[in-house]
Amino acid sequence: LHHAKAAGRDTHRFFAEAMNAEAVAHLSTRSGLRRALERGEFLVHYQPQVSLETGAVVGAEALVRWNHPDEGMIPPGAFIPIAEDSGLIVPIGAWVLAEACRQAAAWQARGLPLSVAVNLSALQLQRADLVRTVTGALADSGLDPLLLELELTESMLIQNTELVMDNLRRIKAMGVQVSIDDFGTGYSNLSYIGRLAVDKLKIDRSFVADLTGSHDSARITTAVIQMAHGLNLNVVAEGVEDAETLEALRRMGCDVAQGYFLGRPGPAEAVERAARQASPFKVGA
Ligand code: C2E
Ligand code: MG
Ligand code: MG
Ligand code: MG
């Protein structure tokens, strides 16, 4: 089994030790983030998603980072909340979307039809120009809409305003996939699943993390997978950190897995290298 060797290269792991929260708060002001966007200091890392049926890399999640000239790699948790409060998540999110589409189109052009999953913020979903932004990113990159996936969270669907519903309907109509991120941690009213024609559930890392150690987590995960399949949805497990968990998920019938065991978020080239191998992760062998 090929264990991801990228662990040591993940600079952002050391972030918590290396940098104090005050410094980030100071940098992550509206003007600081705007300057970062103008100066091209944001970058996108990609984390592979692996089929539990074949062991092949089938896609990647796009995760934004701020490569600060003095402070180094700043993880999204340190600046996304501030970007959301200040509204700057809208241009930052649009940039991530365009960049991720461009990358996936490049993979597609080189014979690797990998899907790319992009996280959306509530503010983006509530905007009248979201459809235009998505259409633009697809048109500029030439990416097949079927290879783009947008990740929403349950809490974003509480405000099921006409605008949000309309945005999602129009995005779905283009062929873009929609998934529910961190599933199981938020709003537990499941009515949106049918109403919105969601394609995929991503089981939150908190359940996956102690799947092999907790009967409750194992039962919840099994139930979520069965429910999802009953509704014709695919299931992605987040936060797979060891072989045992991977095997348990495979036995449970989970479709796709993502996590440090399969590859940390990193440069696009690392995903491409893994995807070039027919079956980089032997599952169920
Ligand atoms: P998320 O969308 O749930 O992304 C998964 C997070 O879990 C990522 O953290 C990823 O590095 C981490 N992760 C993946 N596998 C494992 C594992 O095996 N173990 C552990 N402990 N963690 C794992 P990251 O990159 O720090 O992103 C954190 C959150 O920031 C994301 O959670 C997402 O909510 C948000 N985010 C990232 N990029 C964007 C973006 O472009 N736009 C928006 N709106 N939010 C973003
Ligand atoms: Mg996500
Ligand atoms: Mg998640
Ligand atoms: Mg999350």
UniProtKB/TrEMBL annotation:
Domain EAL span(s) in chain numbering: 26-279
Source species, domain of life: Bacteria
Coiled-coil ranges from the UniProt annotation: none
Name under which the protein is recorded: Diguanylate cyclase
Organism annotation: Azospirillum ramasamyi
Highest classification ranks of the organism: Bacteria, Pseudomonadati, Pseudomonadota, Alphaproteobacteria, Rhodospirillales
